[in-house]
Structure formats: structure tokens, C-alpha cells
Protein 1
Amino acid sequence: MIEVNNLHKSFGDVEVLKGISTSFDKGKTNLIIGQSGSGKTVFLKCLLGLFEYEEGTISYDGKIFSQLTEDEKRNIRAEIGMVFQGSALFDSMTIAENVMFPLQMFTKQSKSEMEDRVDFVLKRVNLPEAHNKMPSEASGGMQKRVAIARAIVNNPKYLFCDEPNSGLDPKTAIVIDNLIQEITDEYQITTVINSHDMNSVMEIGEKIVFLRHGLKAWEGSNKTIFKTDNEVVTDFVYSSNLFKKVRKMYIEENE
Amino acid sequence: MKQLILKDIDDLIIGSLGIVAFISFFVGGVVTIQTALNIDNPLIPKYLVGFATRQSIILEFAPTFMSIIMAGKVGSFITSSIGTMRVTEQIDALEVMGINSLNYLVFPKFISMMLYPFVISIAMFLGILGGMAACVYGGFSTLEDYIVGIQNDFETFHVVYAFIKTFVFAFVLATIPSFHGFYMKGGALEVGKASTTSFVWTSVVIIILNYFLTQMLLS
């Protein structure tokens, strides 16, 4: 479980995060949503320790990150898997080498043990024969799956995904969503996803945090988001006619 | 780390040998031709062509001007490869994993550039060889005169001076381009701009250091 308390982050005079408090539950897919410029990416980068923040605390299973020693921080980081928006695969390595990289950095496994683990996770993301391809030879959907494989190869306790569906066709996006949710359930990971994709919100948003102007404007789930009266949330989530109709049908069915 | 160092040796050192050999051989030839054509006094001995070629190649051409060329070849490669990693979030990926990305990316390049004097010694050898070919086949002097010239009044310290400069320039070639790549901001266009800026600054620093090192070591 990840708990965030009163998080403030500024860039110069511009305050991007204005005191966010929330929590992300273990074994659930937690979504951070909001308009562009609402502070989602900054929030995610604060959670990952890529940005220093001025005020507030972030704790991983009760351990407040900013109060940890460098070794303890390194141990926490070894338990984090991250899927970047552009996949961020290392260009100079094959797909198998990319996936093996966290094992080489954080474990003392033998080469054959690492190869077995890489085989296992590549099969898990449905890429059993992609070992020797270079990232540039893989499609966008394949690259995302490799990024997921790299993120989970070291059995992380926390999985972060920055817009995992961006640039993917709707069918592949659903495959990626389902894969993330299955992995979250299977390994009881605390998964935090930064997303714009309303399909993801409806499908896998077991917990949803809505950010607006650097503040938490709403918190709920894909069940409660249909019923909310919060105008800011409904304006954003049901901005398309399709989702307005879906919501109307859902409310009618449940009345 | 060992694999990264070997890869960088392949990219930065081995990968530069072809262009270094090509440029050195032909520039050595041009230096010889220019020197020979400018000697029209019959009292000046013919072996001076070899002597002048050797001095030009060892003292300046191989260590300094080859380093300027390497600022374009190796420096741009370092800046663009690290810059692309920055733009495509590969550096963020390293940092999320708790890896010291600066050390991970720059240290292997720094170590592999310690083999740079090997490249420069090849440039020296091929420059003098190119001069010899141009001199003999161009009919400017005999092979014996040229060989006498390159052996004449040889000072070992000149080679030491050249290699001191080479080590300093190797440090510059590894660090300035890495700095520009690592701390760049923006997208693909900025990677190109960072490569250009890195080439300009690396060249400027090499020229200035060349001046001060020459002043300190030779005067």
C-alpha cells in the first residue's frame, strides 16, 4: 500500500501539486486521471522519487520514503516496476536483455536462472519468441508488453504505469489493460496507472483518483464514477456522447 | 559494467579507426607535398621534408586536429546517444530502478576514452606513412632522404608532450559531450542542437587547452 499525505510540489513560482492526500491499495489497479496539466505526471514522478517535493510524505507499506537511508531507498526502488509512456526500452539491448536488466542489477541469480525467469515473464506477456529482437523491430503494443515484462521480472511490490495505452489501437489497449489487471491480481501488486483513457477507467479502475489544478477533486472507483454528482468529474469523464449514453444506460439499468 | 566498457570501446575507439586512418594518411601526404613545394632553395637539404612532416604530425596534427575531428565524430555520438536516452525516458527508467544513471552512462565512456592515445599513435604512424608515400611517389625526394628526415633531431619529449595532450583531450572528449547529452531538455530537435553545442564547446576547450599545454610543456 502506498499512502500520500499533503504532497506539495512547485516549479519556481508555479505550484503544481497543492496538497494531495490519498492512498493506493495493494492488489488493486489504482488510476490517476485528470486533464492535461492537472499534475498527474508530476504526481507520478514524485511517487517514483524522480522529483523532490517541498512538503508532505509518501510512504511505501508504512515506510516514509523521505526518511529512509540511501540503502533503504535503494531497497524500495528494487521493489518498484515502471512502465513508461514511450516504453523506455534500452535501444542498444535485445528484448531479452532489456527484461533481464533489473535481475542483473538487483539479484545475484546465475545466468541460467535469469534466462529462465526472462522466458517465464516473456511467455506471461505473450511474447514467447521475441527474445532476440531489438526494440526497434517490435510494434508499439509489443514494446509495451516488453516494458511490462521488464517491470514485473523482479517480482515488484509496486507497479507504476504512465499512460500505458497511449498510441495503441483500441484492441491492443484492452489487451494491455487486461494484462496489467491480471498481473496485479496474480501477484498482489500495488498498481498505480496514470491514464487519459476512459475505457481503462471503466474497465480496470478499481480505485480512481481525479486530479484537477493540482488538487484531488474526487476519489472513487469504476462503480461509483457512474453515480457521482461531482460536476467536475462528470464533465471530464463523460465529455464524449458515447460515454454520456453509457452512463445514462447504466443509471437506467440500476434504477 | 565490463560489457558497457567493451561496447563503448567498440563504438568510440574501434569505430573511429577507419576515419582516423583515412584522414591521417591523406593529410600526412598533403603536409609533405605542401612542405616540399615551398622549399625552393637548393641549399635546404631534401630530408627536411620528412623532418617537417614528422614534426607537424606528432606535435599538432595527430593530437590536436585529430581531437577536433573526434569531437565531431565521437563527441556527437556521445551527446546524441545519451540525449536520446534522456528524451525517450531511458535515463528515467534507470533512475527509477535506483541506478546511478550518470555513473552508469558516463563512466564506461570515460574509461574507454583512456584508449584514445592508441588511436592517436595510429594517426601519427599513418600520417608519417602517408607523407612518405606522397614524397616518394610524388618525386619530391627519395625514400632514404625522407627516412633520414623523420629520424633527424628526434626528441622523445615531443612524443611525451603529444601523449600528455592526448590524455587531456580524451578526458574532454568523454566529459563535455556527456554533460550536454545528460542535462539536455526537450525532444528530438534539441538532441541535434545539443550535439552541435557539444561539438562547438569541445572544440573550443581543446583549442584553449592546447594553447596552455603547449605554453607550459614546450616553452
Note: Chain A has a mean pLDDT of 84.
Protein 2
Amino acid sequence: MKEETEVKEAAIPNTFQTEPKKDERFRPADVRHYVDDLLTTTLKTARYNAAEAPLLARELSKLISQTLVQFPEVGYPYNPPKEQSSSSAVPSSAVAGVAQYGAEHPTTGRGFPRYKHIVQVTIGEVKDQGMRVASRSLWDPKVDSCVSCHFQNNSLFCVAMVFGIYFE
Amino acid sequence: MDDLQSSEEAAFVHEDVRSIVKEVVESTLGPLPQGKPYSHESVPEWIDTICSGITKRLASLHKPFKYVVSSVIMQKNGAGLHTASSCFWDNATDGSVVHPFEGKFLYCVTTVLGIQV
């Protein structure tokens, strides 16, 4: 038996790059467009449901995160208008709606290389209560950025925050 | 930089961060289990105290990290609240701490995310 004892060190040369290239920057405006569209499409008719809400929050944040990894280099993932109505069937639940939205908006870009991101989704019930969401960050304002979108109907509200953080 | 990266100094120490968050939140919103009553006028001030207090304490740790602190305060009247986050990062170095606070009159969920530079 031959034993493989030799462990190869990953040979990644230093790039000496401390800033993102011009076309690799995080684009808050495009991300906002995408997240806004996602929230309005999937939550327009949703009702608050205590059993489904945790799953919905998780699925939303997962979908946004996956999309960001493959975000297009220009613009944002959008759905080209279609003639046939087969795919625009009304989803049975908001969670199914999220999955359908993901399937209808495939992305093949290379995202934002050298960026780490965090997606935080808060879903709550509207019941005349007071509520406030705030965030504060300690980072480099030149390269790091955040997007915050909110959506509300008469049953639930949703706040989605996306933070893009440059990794040197 | 080598010794920094190899030692524990460079890692996200959950216990330290958790105790900072707990201290700041409880000193702002009053001791448990009672907590302060919900007041619409004071909430912006509280939330600012919490977020900036935690950020300042984290900055004084002098670690090679960028931090994101976010906080939600909601009046307690039976309404539901859920938060979820997905992160795309390096599990070995980056980390998060969530601190839920439930007083008699309000909920406060504070999340701290630390990302190594």
C-alpha cells in the first residue's frame, strides 16, 4: 500500500489588493431592487401564520444569500415577461411562493468576489404594537455596505437587511 | 501578522461577546424579569444606546474584526416575531451571537456578527 503523506500547501499567490476592483464592488442599489421585488412578489397576499413564519424567514434569507453568491455582474435578476401562464400559477403558501420565485429568477453571475455577506430577515405580526429595528456597524465605509428593505401588508411585516463586507 | 492569526486572539470569542451584549442590554432595558415598560418615545434612545454601547465595547477589544450589531425592540402584546439570518463567510474565523431579551413589556433581540478582516 502506498501511503500519501505529502500534503500540498495551497499555492495562492499574494494579490496585494486591498480594495475591490471597480466592477467587483457591492452594488446596494441593485441588491435593493432584487430584495424589494422578492418581498413584494412573495408576501403580497401572505397572512401571518405562527407555524409557517420561522420557515418563511429562513427560506427568504437562504434564497437571498444564494442569489447573492451568483449575482449578475450588471443589473439584478429579473423575470422576463412570459406569454404562457403555466409558471405563474398561484403558489399554495408563501414558502412555496419563495421557492417559485427562486426558480423563476435563476442567476448565473459570479456575485461579488472577495465579499462576505450577511442576510438577516425579520418577520412579525401586525397587531398595533410598537416596534423598532436598528443596526450599527464597525467597518470600512469605503468598501462595505448595507441594504435594508421592508414590506408590510395588513397581517405581517418583513424587514430584510443585507450586509456586504469586503474581505481583503 | 503570523502570530496574530495563529493565536486565539484572531478568533471570534463567543463568550466574551455574549457577556458584553448581555451587560449592555440589561443595563439599558432594566433588570430581568421585569424590565422597563415600553415607551414609544424612549425606544429610539434605548436602541441607540444598545447598538453604540456594544459597538464601542467591541472596538475596545482591539481585534481584527469588522462588526455588525443589529437590534429589534418590540412591544409585547401577543404578536409573533421571527428573525433568521444566512451568512456567507468563513466558519472558522467569523461568528455570530444572538441575545434574546424578554421583559414583562417588551422583547429585544440583539444580534452581533463578527467578520475577520
Note: The domain at 24-74+94-166 of chain A is CATH 3.30.1140.40 (Ribosomal protein S3 C-terminal domain).
Protein 3
Amino acid sequence: MDFRFVLLWTDALFFVLLALGLVTIVYVRRSQPLRAAWRKVGSRATGMATATILLAFLAIGLADSLHYRPALPAAAVDGGEAPADSREAAYSSEVLSALDALLAPLRTRLEKTYSAPFAGELYARETVELPDGEQTRIHPRLTYGAAHLDDPETERAQDIASRLGNGAAAAFGVWLVAALAVTASLARRRGRGWTEAASALVRGETVLAWRAALVTFGAILLVAGAAVALGSHYHVFGTDKVGQDVLYLSLKSVRTALIIGTLTTLVMLPFAVALGIMAGYLGGWVDDVIQYLYTVLNAIPGVLLIAAAVLMMQVVIDTNPQWFATAAERADARLLALCLILGITSWTGLCRLLRGETLKLRELDYVHAARAFGVGTAAILRRHIMPNVMHIVMIALVMDFSGLVLAEAVLSYVGIGVDPGTISFGTMINMARAELAREPMVWWSLLAAFAFMFVLVLSANLFADVVRDAFDPRRG
Amino acid sequence: MFAYIVRRLLYALPILIGVNLITFALFFVVNSPDDMARMHLGVKRVTPEAIERWKAERGYDRPLFVNTQADGREKLTDTIFFDESLRMFAFDFGRADDGRDIAQEIRDRMRPSLAIALPTFVLGLFVSVSFALMLVFFRASYLDFWGVVLCVAMMSISSLFYIIGGQWLVSKVWALVPISGYAPGLDAARFLVLPVLISVVAGIGANARWYRTIFLEEISKDYVRTARAKGLSELAVLFRHVLKNAMIPILTGVVVVIPLLFMGSLIVESFFGIPGLGSYTIDAINAQDFAVVRAMVFIGSVLYIVGLLLTDISYTLVDPRVRLE
């Protein structure tokens, strides 16, 4: 199929962030104390298990960040024989991602409106005309959900069970390969036999907690296997108001959450680190100015500052529609702007922490010695102060992530979050909330959004705890 | 002490001016009044005359900072900046888009906001501190471990879930209290129980975990060992010594939010239909009523600065070693 790559701003920055992550890994491998700290993270079962879950989310987000515009079929451009050069420019205005392509069956199978999880019929009654001319109100069958069954009521349980079995079998197959790969690498690294490596793995005696990682990976595979096996014939989490599959929406929301949680910190990091260190080390009027700056920003209630900034940005985006070629680019600009705004409002906390820590560090002997040797201020900051406050930065990064993911949902609910067209947990909840008053209640899209968010935030929180324990020198 | 407070209040002035400059820049410089008018009037009714009329109605047809056409003092006073920004220091916020006086509206709505925020604050602090104390009393046991796990799980749940779930369970399934609404006077209690309860529960996870770390830090100090060596029971040590000393870091984090209680909670108020300042702000954001949002930003920052001052004063009250100079 013909397509054209689209690099949205957030994609580009997300890749930059990943590249930075890789550079950090290389840097960590070279530095002995950092390697020790990360090994401590890896030796904890919680650390490995949550890291596995977070990596799974990251894979979803990454697949969803590879954007392209599919080519329109030539016939749609021009009814007859179109010349080759005019055909080239015809790309769909709809921006898709690799995840969309993977989930094409979920994305394209739209129902008419709400349907419950695993349902074979629409949730609402509709008036249907019977062949004999009479009208009745029934739940019409879905176009796709459980369409392969003649009578969903009686056949469904057995069908689901057999599909689940297939999914679990496939999952186990993949898992076995992964387990064997881990065992093989363990055996090679220790230079001992396979059986020994395997028994160390089962007893949980490896340096890194591979057992926990494998168990978690198995659980993820089971869930994924079940979703794949069932998703092709059912709407596992039901459908929303316009008939979109809720499972698809939940998976798409992951990218938005990751972008908000990570890009925001990327944006604020240079400011917070530079200003915090400078305020602490230089003191004097620099300190006064920086302190004034963050007290002012802190004094404005966060939500209101965000609201004001988002309202204003909305006006800018609305008055300059010529900047954006597609709706996706406009939504993306708003997402990026939201990250910027969140970053500006949230750098103050880290800045204050860094200032305090630098105040302590500048009085230490090795800094005095560097100054006595005539090392320049910039070099002292870079070589002696920066590496010694990095654990604070690291901890703050991981701790902020979950808060930002939760904040996105609330902000989108207030109407100052992402573009209403962007699929995110916030917009999902917002749309579902309007339907809570229905009788009977439409609960599944709410519950799906909350469940996904809970798993993501809980693993991020637990991971943050492990990281803090490993990096904070005050904790044993 | 008095001199200190006066000095701190004087120090607050440049901060408020900074806040004012930032909001003014956000609302008037980033977007010209023309843009705002266009957005407010909608796409169809935009004509140059309509825009001029819209600006004239609000006094936005003047220059931003310096009015070159006026004379003398008027040069600075007959501008948007003077009118919109500086008069806020006199708590004169002008009128909202629906023509009502914002200052009056804020006074009216303060009470419902406080009626929710104050009980939430007191009850929340009490519940979280008690829970944390219990975890510390049973420290290094299964109860402690699972309590912390519970805290982490509770803080990983979106606050929206607590609200929606609570409304569904208590109001719809059990039908104990009305889903939303408000009534003046004592009748309000009926409407307030659920939002207060939900806010308290939503706050337990993060707060109790934080208090627990503070208590644990305190409990490893020498004076606690001395107290135990004297033969005090563990409960007496906890309540008489640890709690008192741990209140200092807890107060720093907590006192600063007391004045902000006046602002109410954005989400809770709008979910429960309580006519407080939080829902006022949300409505203003949704209606893009910039005057109201600006007024709320200003009030919020004033309250924050008051909170900082209260924090410092409360230090001296709980810790005699701290003297304000």
C-alpha cells in the first residue's frame, strides 16, 4: 500500500526523548554508582514487574507514534484514467498510525451506537418493521459483534471459552520462547549449564528479578492473547455512542497519556535544572530573581494558570487555521501546547528542590577544592554539582509521571485538556459521563478508561517507589 | 513578630504585581482584544463594527499600556492595563459577561465553597493522620505492608472515579442522599455529606502515605528512645511525643492550603452542582469569560501568599525553636 510518513511534533519529541533515554542507558553503563543504583532497582521484584508493564505501555505508545497518511485509491480521485502525476498528491486527510494499522479490525468495525461488552445486540431498542408490515421494538443484532453466532445467548459462553483457550495457548507459546531466551542468556552469562540457570530462575536467585519479569510478561501475554482471540469477533469492552470499539479507544489513549506524562517533564527539565542549580550556587541577585520567578508562578493556582493559558492558546489555534494541514496536526499542536503549559506550571517544585540541594553541595570540600584550583563556575556546575543532583532529577521525573497522567483526565473533563478530537482517557471519561444518567447505565467505557489508567498509574507509582529507594542516599 | 508580618506583606506586593503582569500578558498581549472579540462573537457575526462595539462595551478599545492621546496622568491611567489589572488590588473585578458584578458574586459563592472545603479539610486531616498513626503503630507488620499497598492503590485511582463511583453507589444504588444540588441553611447538610466524604476518601492514599514517612522519620530519633527507656507505653510515645513533633512538617504542607479552601474544589463542586467558587470558575472557563478567570487567578494568588505567611506564623506556634526575625 502506498502511504506517506507524517511526523507530528509530539512524535518527533517523543523520539527525541527515547533517544535521550538510550543515551542515558549508555551513560549509566559506564558509570559505576549509577549502574549499582539501577541494579538495585532491577533486583527488586516490584521494580522488574512494573518495568515490564510500563514497557508494554511504551510499546503501544511507540506503535501509535509512527504516523502516516494512506494514499487514496486512484479511482476516488478521478473517475477515469488519471495521469500518473496527479495521482501522487492524493493522500487521505486522515492521519493513521502503525497501531491503527495493527488494530484495523477494531478501528473499522463500527456499530451504530452503544453495545455492551460481548453483546450480540445493540444496547438500545429500535423500531423495526417486520415482514408482515407490523412494527415492533427489539434490540437489533450488531453488524460485527458476535455476528458469527446464530444465537448469541446460547452459543456465546462456549464460543468465548474455546477462543480464550486458543488465545491462552498462543500466549503460552510466545511466553515459552521468551522464558527460554532469558534462561539461555543467563546460562551464557554465568558460564554454567542450562539446568542450573533454569533452577536459579525458578527459585528467584538471579541478580535481576527475572522471575518477576517473566511472570508479569506472562500475565500481559495472557491478557493480550485473550484480547486478540476475542477482539476479532466481539467488542470486548463494548462500543461507545458512535459505535467505536472501546478497547480500541483505550489502547489509543495510552499514547496521549504517555506523551503528557513524559514530554511535560522533558520540557520543564532544562529550566528547572539550570535555574535551580544557578540559584543555589551563585546566590545573590540571581538567587533573588529566580526565587521571585518561581514564587510568582507558584502563587497562581495551577489549574487556573493552565486554564488561562489553554484558553488563550485555543484562540491562537482558532485564528490561525492555515498553520495546520490536517485535523490531526491541529489536535497535536494543542497536545504539545498542553505539555508546554503543564511544564511551565510544574517546574517550580523541582527547581526549589535542586536549589536547596545545591546550597548544601557548594559548601562541600571538593567544590571548595575545585574553586581553589581555579576551575570556572560553568565547569564546576557541570562537573561537580550536576552529577550530584541527578538522583533528585531522576526521582522527580518518575514521581511526576503518574500525577500528570491523572491530571490529564481531570483537565480534559474541565474542558482545558487535550483537543476533543484526541482520544485520551480524559475525553473517554468525559463522553461516557454524559451517559451515566441513562437507564440502564452505560458503564463500560468509563470502567475501561479507569481500569487502563489505574494499571498505568499504579505501575508508575510502584516503579517510582523502587527508583526512589534505590537512588535516595538517605534510604538504606 | 508584627514587624515581620508587615515586612512579609510588603514582600507580597511585588509577587502580586508579577502575577498580574503574567495574567495580563496571557489575556491581552498573547491575543489582541480583536481576537477575543472574534471568538466571542462567533464566526457568523464578525463584522468590523461588531468587533468595535464589543471592545467599546468592555473598554478594550484603548491602548494596552500607554495612552499617547491622553494628557498628564491620564496617559497611564486611561489604558487597559490600568483598568483591568491595577484596580484588582482594590478587589474591584468589574463585571462578568452576563453583566453581574464579579466581586459580589464571589462573596455570595464563598459560603457554599467553604461549607464543603472546611469539613473536607478537617476530616481529611484527622482521618489521614489517624490512619498513618495506625500504620506506624503496627510498623513492619503485615498490616503496615498492606496498608501502604492500599495507600498506593488508592492514590493511583483517578479522582474522577471516586466521584462518579461514589455518586453511583451512594446516591443511585443506595439512594441515601440526593445526587447533586444545594440548599441554603442547615438543609445543605443533606447535599454536602457525599462530596465531603468522597473528597476525604480520595485524599487518604497520598496523604496517609506521606504522613507515615514523616512519623517514621521522627520515631527513629533519640528522644523517642529516651521516652521508651523511661517506660512510657508505645501509645503514649506516639501521641505525646511523635505526633507533636511530626506536626511541624505536616503543618508546612497543610497550612498553605487553608486560605485556598475559599476557592473551593473545581471538580467536586461542578459534579455535585454546588454553587461555589469552584463551579463558578469552571463555568467561566467553559463560557470563556476572561474577566472571571482573571479575577479568580488574582484571588487565588492572594490567598496563596496569605497561606505562606500563615505557615511561617504557625511554625512559631508549634516549634518554640523557630523565631521570626
Note: The interface with chain B takes residues 292, 295-301, 303-305, 307-309, 311-312, 315-316, 318-319, 402, 406, 409-410, 413-416, 425, 429, 433, 436, 441, 446, 450, 453-454, 457-458, 461-462, 465 of chain A (CB under 8 Å).
Protein 4
Amino acid sequence: MLEAQSIITILFVSLGIIFMLVGSIGILRLPDFYSRSHAVSKSDTLGVVFVIVGLIIYEGFTLSSGKLFLIVLFIALSNPIGTHALARAALKKGLKPLLHDDKKGGETS
Amino acid sequence: MENFFLYSAVVLTIIIAVPLIRVVKGPTLFDRLLATNAIATKTIVLVCLIGFLFGRIDMFIDITLAYAILGFIGVLAIAKYLSSPKVRRNA
């Protein structure tokens, strides 16, 4: 089995999983909905891109890796849009962002 | 290489369990939606990894593609429904 290909795959997949771990921790610790949406959309998308690019490298040059590339493209486009739609609906529904002066403003209103 | 995919799939399952805490604890409705969206994105990768584990890669990639599209449309539908005046519950 080609050694370099496996090492690169292990590197990419573990890097992607680390980014997803960071995204999950960000969801728990960040104080406000709008800051949490940063964690979800950005680090998750990057984690998915890294893992699937690692799988593409492991797969080589076949039809499946073409489809995997389509998945990467779709997720890189759709995940931020989904989170943006949620944040926009939240703002329209009246969820105030947590500004620096009022400590717990974002939660209750 | 096979057990590396197995271990990463197990770690990914643990990472998927973390947003569940936010789904339960989330003060506002939108936190719950956000955590669910995060779980959906992570599930996409988990299904891909399981596809590589089972060896039938092309079947699982189609499942992943369909799931990604449905997850995206679901989030948009919920966001559009919540921003419409019909919903009276405040965030």
C-alpha cells in the first residue's frame, strides 16, 4: 500500500476531526447564539473539507473521488448559507445579540 | 488503514454527542436549531467514513450526497418558517 498516500490521508482526516472538535467545544462555551453560529459554520465546514479531501487522496483518481469532490463543494457552499439563514431568522424574531455592556442580554430577550 | 478509519469514526461519534448537550441546554430555540445543524454536518462525514470502512464506497457516497442536500433544504425551510409572522413564540 502506498505509504505516502496513507500518511497524507491520516494527516488530513485527523486535522479535520480536530477542527470539528473545536467547533463542538465552541458551541458549548461561547456565550451567545450569534457567536455560536461562528463556531458551527466556520470550523465545521473546514473540518468536513479536510476529512473529505483526505478521503479523496486515499481514494485516488476514480468516479467516487469525483463524487466526494462534489460533496465538498456542496457543503462548502451550503453550510454557511444555512447558518446565515438561521441567524437572519433569529435577528428578525428579535433575539438581541449579546453586546459587551449587558452581560446576559442575549439569553433572556 | 482500516482501523484508523474505525477509530476516527468512533471519535467522530463522541464529537457528535457534544452538540447534543447544547440541544438540551440551549436557552433559545435557535441554539437548538444551530446544534442540530452542526450534528447534521458531522453526520455527513461520519457516513462517508463508514462507507470507507465497509468498502462499498460508491453506495455510501450517494447516501451522503442526498443527506447533505436534504439537511440543507431542511435548515432553509425551518429558517424561512420561523421568520414568517405566523410563528408567535418569541425566540
Note: Chain B has a mean pLDDT of 89.
